[in-house]
């Protein structure tokens, strides 16, 4: 049964709001935008697919950047686009193969996007920030995976 686009819009806005909530839960790191804002985007990509993952992941990062005062300035826009592509990739890979390579790809893309911070932070600071970003992306990925597995089992899909 085909559901109206209104359901999809409501789902995207609800999970984007959860990204905003997650953006207030910061992980240790030198840049305050390292938070639990990616977990809802990762989950949506796994559960609902690439388009929803694209939207929630991109808007979730922009919301986090706004809340934290845009510490990387205009660079948050290409980072948000990269995270949106990460959400799309997670949804696509999960549908085509499985959850583990999907989350691994999402974490990798999320971590590699740190290169966009080099103009603001410099090379040394960016390299020192990378482990924090990788850890945060991994925690977000694991959290979303656990929720995805629990919901999938509960609904017996």
Essential attributes:
157 residues; 7 helices; mainly alpha; Arp2/3 complex 21 kDa subunit ARPC3
Summarize the structure.
This protein has 157 residues and is mainly α.
- What gross morphology would you assign? globular
DSSP helix fraction: over 70%
Specify the biggest β-sheet.
none
H/E series, N to C? Answer: HHHHHHH
Q: What class, by secondary structure content?
A: mainly alpha
Low-confidence stretches: none
Number of domains: 1
Query: Any idea of the CATH topology?
Result: Arp2/3 complex 21 kDa subunit ARPC3
Task: Give me the number of helical elements.
Answer: 7
CA-to-CA gap between the ends? Answer: 16 Å
Mean pLDDT: 91
CATH architecture: Orthogonal Bundle
Rg from alpha-carbon coordinates: 15 Å
Q: For the record, what CATH class applies? A: Mainly Alpha
Number of strands: 0
Fraction in beta strands: under 5%
Model description:
The chain is mostly helical. It has a single domain, classed as Arp2/3 complex 21 kDa subunit ARPC3 (Orthogonal Bundle), CATH 1.10.1760. Helix content is 76%, strand content 0%. The protein has helices at residues 5-23, 38-48, 50-67, 76-96, 99-112, 118-121, 123-154. The mean pLDDT is 91.
